[in-house]
Specification:
Chain lengths: 619, 153, 242
């Protein structure tokens, strides 16, 4: 390989100018989404079709064209997504659409409205980012890069201003950098919302030869994928942030800890580190400044608890990922007992923005206490789901109704769950709450890393609590008594309630156990485990009582407490349910009302989910 | 079971001789042999100078590592939050019935290991089934998933 | 050693900076229960959670485990508040559900006013028996004996100590230090004639040439000779007859 090492800040700038120049001569770029959901929906076939079409038409000589595979473009539920630099975006694109797109959009700049977004209410179509509510209400500070940059191409990143913050940072005193981060009000995006500047300052203040800078890419929240998308879609932004952080705190070694279940993220990050090293942006004597910093990639081992800071550090050391008491903080005694700064993927990705544009600019977005934007993975029962980024302070309702497009199949919006297993459920009645670190905590939930799960009337809150507690019981490291032995018992009580064996006093017993965990557990996994239970008891107590007293599941979820039957008036006899029923216990002739054989029904609910006419009823 | 000791050494060779490499080496064993063999752990202990007890402790702690061989294909049903709300557990039951195994189990012919995992980052497809960490299937129609699974030999 | 003054239950107490609250409290006659604490072991895992106390420092009050909380200037400790009692009782009730047959835990439960656990009880489940997963045994083996024959295995409620591959350990020297350290007597060590059984392995014992009592495993003698260079003949007699 040729030596591409950039020897100085000036060399970086002239290199940038060179690639920008060479990219300018190009014609419209077609961005084909290469995020996991789009790939699953066939985006590689679409990309392939573009390639073929471009070649067969011999466009290469007339109009030079490239198609690019990018990170997730956000609108995963409507994938494969194809967009163009000029505000046009097509959804649910199939290979057969490709010739038309080439003909109209690429050659003639026409918009094909029929490939755009169809508003479920107005039935109007739009193929522009601005015209689609899902995109129009977002602010893409972090995600912008994901839509435009080929994550495997460092040049792509550099052409769009990548690594510019280094040039600036290296000319500023580290203490001043920390001041900038502090002034920006940047708070950790990994859940706790701890001020990043404060953390960096304490680490720098410790007298030590060696310090470490770590990136938490463990993303253990079982309903979240923002960090994954950032690492897969714009890895260099994370690396750039880490270099700035290392410079600021005086660290020469870094680690990125990435969840093992994200093979693509590991691959992309590894390649990015190699490329950055080859270009002299990582390694010894970065950009000729004399500053050394390297990053190693560690794959996680499949343990939620390893997202917790002290467990993560043990895991990097090659040990069992058990947390430690943190009476001495990890900025003081972290990895290998040396001063360590650990920040989340998204936190790091914010850093270059702050250095490039200044803290004041950063504070213009978001709220006083929580500046900037937050990336969420919006999932659950909303019409539109995917990766979204909104300014902090956006209300839950705006997020669910505008970006999310409301609830699917016209059901009622019931609650959102934020913060994953450490968070809680916030009822619709509080949906006007602004989303920021402090408001969510006050409501008994928390920001967490950014999973937002939308729930409708067909979501049982006791079942949700049971789900999270079962998850945590599996993931408890087993070190301390309250969590190790308390969670299985909470799970048992919740299971009894959902299976019709609930007793008076169970709710109080749960509350008692919650206290033992909040006060007694060693780490955050155990001490925040009560949130899903306490928040659902607080806002949906009557649902618990219905299970316990009336042996009834109002949402129609808990199998032992419900029966399914088909409403003969509503059933059109489309046979869909009969085809999908795993028990084959639905019978009926085409165009005639169908019937469920109750003796064989396992109450899986598939029929209800597939029925397009809402004819399957549960009681 | 015959495990090729040269393969074991090849994997160990890729990494620095320090405890820090332990997890990565065991993961590579997992990918290569479809489990973490006892011979491998013994060898790692010798080379890295880490007591076998610690290596075994690590081997039993992390879910990504399995001490028993898994099937030729892994079928992972996502039971993350979004998938749970959309019926992932039923889907697991249905697939388990088809394959004749419980989650965590391997079919008698060694064709499939069925696992449940947390969010695989494709919630838009919920409930999601992932085969061999490569192929993703939307699970809202279980019968279609079963049809797809039959393709894997 | 920096001397400092702290307050325990309102009383001024002299202490050495960074000593644990538990040790300072016990030296001064305050009773705090503790299961996973062992004075000779440096790792303070803080896993059993029965040694909880309330501390206030810099205007912040919280519950901490006294066995690994370092004393610093101005610290105020309360060992017997309502909160401490309530949470400790909860912890002990959970331990009682985990190991209902352990006399140590039964006694602790009675002291905390618990008759019977209200939760489901783990009965004689697999190998873990009376083990409360405190990890003292593995720490003794590693830090004091220097052998690392056992480690904590699995996670969550299955967590328990064991040998590699659950097979008899090749490196265990049969010293029994783990069994002596265990707070709940959960490790089975049986001395029968000239044989000691522990962790699934049998060790031949050396007999005292004076009293004829088997008193130390041969493997342990080998280990001591190897690591300290002591003369083998030293072990001909048991400590009582040296
Ligand atoms: C049980 C548990 C799991 C966690 N999982 C994650 C995670 O997956 N990703 C993450 O960034 N932070 C996670 N955290 C928070 C981290 O401990 C830590 O606070 C964070 O990475 C710090 O970075 P930040 O300040 O940039 O958010 C977890 C915490 C706990 C207690
Ligand atoms: S709270 Fe749970 S995860 Fe944390 S140390 Fe205790 S047992 Fe382990
Ligand atoms: S609930 Fe499931 S088993 Fe019962 S009829 Fe519907 S699809 Fe069949
Ligand atoms: S008996 Fe074996 S396991 Fe126990 S402390 Fe001694 S060497 Fe370690
Ligand atoms: S056997 Fe005893 S010392 Fe070892 S972990 Fe269990 S309770 Fe603790
Ligand atoms: S993966 Fe394509 S939009 Fe998310
Ligand atoms: S919850 Fe299943 S993919 Fe996210
Ligand atoms: S003695 Fe302190 S936690 Fe066990």
């Amino acid at each position: 390989m040729v030596n591409r090492k950039l020897q100085s800040v000036a060399a970086l700038e002239s290199y940038r100018a060179k690639i920008a120049e060479s990219q300018k001569n190009e014609y419209p770029v077609i961005y084909v989404c290469g995020g996991t959901p789009c790939l699953a929906k066939g985006s590689s076939a679409v990309a392939e079709a573009f390639k073929k079409e471009i070649e067969s038409q011999g466009l290469a000589c007339k109009i030079e064209l490239r198609h690019k595979v990018t990170g997730c473009q956000g609108f995963c539920s409507k994938g494969p997504v194809v967009s163009f630099g000029n505000d046009i975006v097509y959804l649910e694109v199939k290979p057969e659409h490709v010739p038309e797109i080439i003909e109209k959009t690429v050659k003639n700049g026409q918009v094909i409205e029929s490939l755009g977004y169809k508003d479920p209410q107005t039935k109007k179509r739009s193929a522009s980012f601005q015209g689609i509510p899902f995109y129009a209400h977002q602010k893409g500070m972090i995600l912008k890069g994901l839509r435009e940059i080929d994550p495997f191409e460092i040049d792509d990143y550099i052409a769009r201003g990548g690594y510019a913050s280094l040039a600036k940072a290296f000319s500023i005193d580290p203490d001043k950098i920390i001041d900038m981060i502090t002034e920006s009000g940047l708070r950790g995006r990994g859940g706790g919302g701890f001020p990043a500047g404060t953390k960096w300052r304490s680490c720098r203040a410790i007298d030590s030869e060696v310090r470490y800078v770590l990136c938490n890419g463990d993303e253990g929240d079982p309903g979240a994928f923002m960090d994954r998308s950032i690492m897969e879609g714009n890895p260099h932004a994370v690396i750039e942030g880490m270099i700035v952080g290392a410079w600021a705190v005086g660290a020469h070694h870094g680690y990125a800890y990435i969840r093992d279940e994200y093979p693509l993220a590991v691959k992309v990050m590894k390649k990015a580190v190699e490329d950055a090293t080859a270009m002299g942006l990582l390694g010894k004597n970065i950009l000729g400044t004399g500053f050394d910093f390297d990053i190693k990639i560690t794959r996680g081992g499949g343990a939620f608890v390893c997202g917790e800071s002290s467990a993560l550090m043990r895991s990097i050391e090659g040990k069992v990922g058990e947390p430690r008491a943190k009476y001495i903080r990890s900025v003081e005694k972290g990895l290998y007992d040396l001063p360590t700064v650990l920040n989340n993927v998204e936190t790091w990705a914010n850093v270059p923005l702050i250095i490039n544009n200044g803290p004041q600019w950063y504070r213009e977005t978001g709220t006083e206490g929580s500046p900037g934007t937050k990336v969420f993975s919006l999932a659950g029962k909303a019409v539109n789901t995917g990766l979204v980024e909104v300014p902090m302070g956006t209300t839950i309702r705006e997020l669910v109704e505008k970006v999310g497009g409301g609830i699917r199949s016209g059901r009622m919006f019931k609650a959102v769950q934020t913060g994953g297993p450490s968070g809680g459920c916030i009822p619709e009645s509080l949906a006007d709450l602004p989303i920021d670190f402090d408001s969510l905590s006050k409501a008994g939930s928390m920001m967490g890393s950014g999973g937002i799960i939308v729930m409708d009337e067909a979501t049982c809150m006791v079942d949700v609590a049971k789900y999270f507690i079962s998850f945590l019981a599996e993931e408890s490291c087993g070190k301390c008594t309250p969590c190790r032995d308390g969670l299985p018992r909470m799970k048992q009580i919740l299971t009894d309630i959902t299976e019709g064996r609930g007793k008076e006093g169970d709710i109080e017993l749960l509350e008692e156990l919650c206290d033992v965990l909040s006060y007694g557990a060693l780490c955050g996994l155990g001490s925040s485990a009560p949130n899903p239970v306490l928040s659902t008891i607080k806002y949906f107590r009557e649902e618990y009582e219905a299970h316990i007293r009336d042996r009834r599941c109002p949402a129609g979820v808990c199998r032992n407490l419900v029966t399914f039957h088909i409403d003969a008036d509503a059933c059109t006899g489309c046979t869909l349910c009969a085809k999908q029923c795993p028990q084959a216990c639905i019978t009926g002739e085409r165009k005639k009302a169908h019937v469920i054989d109750q003796s064989r029904c396992i109450k899986c609910g598939v029929c209800r989910d597939v029925c397009k006419f809402d004819a399957v009823r549960v009681e | 079971m015959g495990i090729d000791i040269r393969k074991i050494d090849e994997i160990i060779e890729r990494y620095d001789k320090s405890e820090e490499s332990l997890l990565a080496i065991l993961q590579d064993f997992q990918h290569t042999f479809r489990y973490v063999p006892e011979e491998g752990m013994k060898r790692v202990s010798e080379v890295l100078g880490v007591p076998e007890s610690k290596i075994y402790g690590v081997g039993t702690f992390y879910k990504a590592l399995s001490l028993k061989p898994v099937g030729r294909h892994t079928c992972k049903v996502c039971t993350g939050t979004a998938c749970h709300l959309k019926g992932a557990h039923t889907l697991t039951d249905i697939i388990g019935k088809e394959l004749g195994v419980e989650p965590g189990g391997t079919t008698k012919d060694g064709r499939f290991t069925l696992q449940t995992v947390n969010c695989v980052g494709a919630c838009a497809l919920a409930p999601v089934v992932m085969v061999d960490d490569e192929d993703y299937y939307e699970g809202s129609s279980p019968q279609d998933v079963l049809k797809n699974l039959r393709k894997y030999k | 050693m920096e001397k400092i003054t702290i307050k325990i239950n309102g009383k001024d107490i002299e202490a050495v900076k960074d000593q644990s609250v538990l040790e300072v409290a016990r030296e001064n006659g305050f009773a705090i229960p503790a299961l996973c604490f062992h004075p000779e072991i440096e790792t303070r895992a803080g896993s059993c959670r029965v040694c909880l106390v309330e501390v206030s420092q810099n205007g912040r009050t919280r519950l901490v485990t006294s066995c690994n909380y370092p004393v610093r200037k101005g610290l105020e400790v309360r060992t017997d508040t309502d909160l401490v009692r309530r949470i400790r009782k909860g912890v002990v009730e959970l331990l009682l559900s985990r190991t209902p047959d352990s006399p140590v835990i039964q006694k602790l439960a009675r002291e905390n006013g618990i008759e019977k656990s209200r939760f489901f009880v783990d009965e004689g489940e697999h190998y873990r028996n009376r083990c409360i997963a405190c990890s003292l045994c593995t720490q003794v083996c590693e830090e004091v004996v220097g052998v690392s024959a056992i480690s904590m295995l699995d996670r969550g409620r299955d967590k328990a100590p064991g040998t590699p591959y659950l097979k008899p350990s090749q490196v265990c020297i049969g010293c029994g230090a783990c069994a002596y350290a265990c707070p709940t007597d959960a490790i089975s060590m049986i001395d029968e004639g000239e044989v000691r059984k522990i962790w699934g392995r049998e060790f031949k014992m050396v007999t005292c040439s004076v009293c004829g009592k088997p008193y130390i495993p041969e493997a342990q003698v080998d280990w001591i000779v190897k690591t300290t260079g002591k003369d083998r003949s030293f072990f001909d007699k048991c400590p009582d007859h040296r």
